[in-house]
Specification:
The protein is of the alpha+beta class and about 260 residues long. Helix content is about 15%, strand content about 25%.
Length: about 260
């Protein structure tokens, strides 16, 4: 029985074999993919910082909104701001946008064109004399089209006044026919009054249309000229002459300051 049991006992199966163990290797810093990733991150940081620095260099700068002549005193609305990117050397010459309000009342030493950047060299020194703003009433049709900053002469008519010399300026007197001996125009009648230059080369600031149809123009005048501007506004007739500048920026001499009038 023992032998039979031994004969029929199945043989024990051999245990399964396990695969050989694999050792986990540590990733090395020299791994090419890791190096490429780090390099890409560094490049992105550098490029981003460069773009940020470039964008940050764009600032607001003061520019002229229109053509401004030499001698013009800056008023509100003459200057504006634009965004621009200037290098370090150039930016030191011009006014930043934050200072646009500080320039009101400053006098230009040279003409400034529309859109031109405004620099410290464009303005006269601080020894500029004080001025006065004076309104003058002018009848409609007795002044040309004006813009802020234009310079003008102001003439007034004085009824019953006699001009120095008794004849119109620039003439050689009348003849027996009652005409001007120079150009054949009619000579002024005696007692017809006088046309007088009240203000020369003063700045026009602004104009207001009155309900009567007349115009109230504001002029910037020297202190000594303020009383003349006030007196001119009381005249029976005020005429405004716009001054045109020559190639050098000047307006020339005033010319004759009084002449016999032709009446109203």
């Amino acid at each position: 029985m023992t032998e039979l049991a031994a004969a029929v006992r199945p043989e024990a199966s051999a245990p399964p074999t396990s695969p050989p163990a694999r050792r986990i290797t540590r990733r090395r810093w020299r791994d090419s993919r890791l190096l490429v990733g780090v390099l890409l991150v560094l490049v992105s940081v550098v490029v981003g910082a460069r773009l940020f620095a470039t964008a940050d260099s764009s600032r607001q700068w003061v520019v002229a909104r229109g053509d401004l002549p030499a001698g013009h005193v800056v008023v509100a609305g003459d200057l504006g701001t634009v965004s621009a990117r200037l290098d370090g050397t150039t930016s030191g010459r011009y006014y930043p946008g934050a200072r646009v309000g500080d320039l009101t009342g400053a006098t230009l030493a040279r003409p400034v064109n529309a859109g031109e950047f405004v620099s410290g060299g464009d303005f006269a020194g601080r020894d500029r004399p004080a001025t006065r703003l004076v309104p003058v009433i002018v009848k409609a049709g007795r002044l040309p089209a004006l813009e802020s900053g234009d310079h003008v002469d102001i003439y007034v008519f004085q009824a019953g006044a006699a001009a120095a010399g008794g004849t119109p300026a620039g003439t050689s007197g009348g003849d027996a026919t009652g005409t001007n001996g120079t150009n054949g125009t009619a000579a002024p009648a005696v007692g017809a009054g006088a046309e007088t230059l009240a203000l020369h080369d003063v700045e026009f600031v602004e104009m207001e249309k009155l309900a009567s149809g007349d115009r109230s123009i504001t002029l910037r005048v020297p202190i000594d000229g303020a009383i003349g501007a006030v007196a001119a506004s009381q005249s029976e007739r005020v005429d405004v002459v716009k001054l045109e500048r020559d190639a050098s920026g000047g307006v020339g001499a005033s010319g004759p300051t009084t002449t016999a009038g032709f009446g109203r």
